[in-house]
Amino acid sequence: MIFQCPTEKGKGVLLAPTVHGTVLIGPDSVFIDDKEDLSTEGEGLHIIRETALKSSQKIPFDKVIRSYTGLRAVPSTHDFIIGEAAGIPGFFQCGRIRIAQAFPLQPAVAADAVAYVLSKLPELREKADYNPRRRPVIRFAELTESEKIETIGKDRRYGHVVCRCETVTEGEIIDCIRRNAGATTVKGVKKRVRPGMGRCQGGFCGPRIMEILQGN
Fold first, then answer.
1. Which of 16, 39, 121, 202 could form a disulfide with 24 if both were Cys (CB 3.0 to 4.6 A apart)?
2. What phi, psi does 213 have (nearest 5°)?
């Protein structure tokens, strides 16, 4: 992840590689008073582009798939919000932690949250046979040809490509649905195994994903 020198608005435009081999670029930072305002302007996208080019000249802007916007709430305290919500007993908040700060802070925040829950529910005990490992996830597009043949031989559903843009198979989608805490919505499937993340943004694979969800 590449950051530029921070300003009064924060870390500014960054380049963030994803686990799927793509890159997120942005954001800009504009202070607004309307918490419902999600509008964008061409000028903002231009600023992101020109600022990002200071970090790298090799950004393929001609291959951008989606541009989006969001809001980051900043409390009047200008600090993290970690603790029980005023007037709502039992509701513990962990908020206002920016992404750049979240990675190193997660263990400490999690420890605070666990300590809080235990203080409210002292009868809880750690599960003795808890298994923190999950079974491997098959990423069909990343397999070698021989591995693909072997995988399809074990389960033919991995030979049915549902999302052509990202080469995501029926087997992968069914697997992500049937896991513990598996996907139950189209967006849930999209976030886990990427169908709909490509050029067509689900225009072709979306209906098929709905059918698979309905049957599983």
1. 16
2. -60, -40
